[in-house]
Amino acid sequence: MSTDTAPDGRHLDGSAGDADYGTIGRGYTDYRQPDPRIAAAIERALGDAVTVLNVGAGAGSYEPRDRTVTPVEPSASMRAQRPADLAPAIDATAESLPFADDSFDASMATFSIHQWSALERGLAEMRRVTRGPVVLLSCDPAALDRFWLVDYAPEVIATEASRYPEPERVARALGGQVRIEHVGIPLDCTDGFGEAYYGRPERLLEPGARLANSAWSFVAQDVEARFVDTLSADLASGAWDAAHGHLREQPEFDGSLRLLVGLP
User: Fold this and answer.
1) What residues contact 66, with CB distance under 8 A and at least 6 apart?
2) pLDDT-based confidence at 30, cuts 50/70/90?
3) CA dist., res. 260 & res. 183, Å (int)
4) Which residues of 127-161 are buried (b: 16+ CB within 10 A; e: fewer)?
5) Buried b (16+ CB within 10 A) or exposed e, 80-118
6) DSSP three-state, residue 204
7) pTM above 0.85, yes or no
8) Name one GO biological process term (predicted).
9) What local confidence, expressed as pLDDT, does residue 27 receive?
10) Distance separating alpha carbons of residues 24 and 261, to the nearest angstrom
11) Angle at Cα 40 formed by Cα 38 and Cα 44, nearest 5°?
C-alpha cells in the first residue's frame, strides 16, 4: 500500500480512507461492475426518494439512473473512472459533507464505510443531510470466515475483519430505526468483491481481481504469492473441488454481505 500522503493526511490521489485508490484503483471498473440483483435491493431500500446522496461514490457503482444523484468521492482516480452519463463527483469526504441539513430524500454508501477515517462522524453527517433512509451496503466482519479464502489467505480475511465495522455499531451510530438485511451473493455476480468468486476460484488468480479488492493492498507480497501458488496447485490437483466444488453449482452464497437501512 502506498504511504504517500498530502499534508492534510489524505493520499496524494485524494483518497481519504485507509486505502490508496491512486494505486489500487487502476482498472477497478474492469472487475467491479454493479450486480443487478444487489442493485435491486438497494433500489428497494431507497424507496420513493427522488434526490439521493452517494457517499464514497467511486466510479458510480449502484447509483440509480432514474433519480437525481449527488455523488461525493475524494479519490481523483476513482472520479476519473465515472461513466459520462453519471453526474461528476464532488471532491469531499463523508466526515465533512458540504450540504445543508435535510438536503436529500435519501443517502447511500456502498462498500465505503469501512474506509472512513471516522465512522461515527461520517454516519452522523449522512443522517444530518438526509430526510429519509440512509442505505449502506457493507459486510459483517463476523461472517467473513464463511468464505473459503480463509483457508488460503487468512491474513486477507483478518484484514477485512479488522476494517469492517460490526453492523450493530453502525446501527447505534445512525440512531432511529435500523434494519439489517442479509444480501445473497449470486454465483455469476458481476461485482468482483472477494466473495463474488465463491464458486469461481480461478478468477481470484487474476491480479486485476485482487487489485480491485483493497484488502490485498494491506498484506505482504509473500502472502499473495503463497495464495496464488497454493490455490493454483489445489485447482490442478482437484483438492479445491474436493473441499468446495459444490459451490460451483450453488446459485447463491450467504456470506458477509449486509444492507443496512436507517430511518429517522
Assistant:
1) none
2) confident
3) 10
4) bebbebbbbbbbbbbebbbbbbbeebbebbbbbbb
5) ebbeeeeeebbebbbbebebeeebbbbbbbbbbbbbbee
6) helix
7) yes
8) methylation
9) 63
10) 29
11) 120
Residue 11: pLDDT over 50: no
Rounded-to-integer distance, Cα 217 and Cα 23, Å = 9
Q: Under 8 Å CB-to-CB from 184, ≥6 apart: which residues?
A: 37, 252, 253, 254, 257
Whether the per-residue pLDDT at 55 is higher than 60: the answer is yes
- Between helix 119-129 and helix 167-174 the angle, nearest 10°, is 50
Cβ neighbourhood burial of 192 (10 Å; 0-12, 13-18, 19+) = buried
How far apart are alpha carbons 38 and 259 in whole angstroms? Answer: 9
Q: What residue spans define the domains of the chain? A: 21-263
Mode of pairing for the β-strands spanning 252-253 and 185-186: antiparallel
Contacts of residue 40, defined as CB under 8 A and 6 or more positions apart, other chains included, come to none
Q: Is 27 left (phi over 0), alpha (psi -120 to 50) or beta?
A: left
DSSP 8-state class, residue 131? S
Q: Which residues contact 5 (CB under 8 A, 6 or more apart)?
A: 11, 12
With both helix axes pointing from N to C terminus, report the angle between 154-163 and 221-237 in degrees, rounded to the nearest 10: 130
Q: How far is CA 31 from CA 16, 34, 35, 194, 197, in A?
A: 22, 10, 11, 11, 11
Q: Determine the topology of domain 21-263 in CATH.
A: Rossmann fold (3.40.50)
Query: pLDDT-derived band of residue 29, with 50, 70 and 90 as boundaries?
Result: confident
At 210-260, the pLDDT tens digits run 999 989 999 999 999 999 999 999 999 999 999 999 999 999 999 999 999
The string of pLDDT tens digits covering residues 57-93 is 998 989 999 999 999 999 998 899 899 999 999 999 9
DSSP reduced 3-state for 202: helix
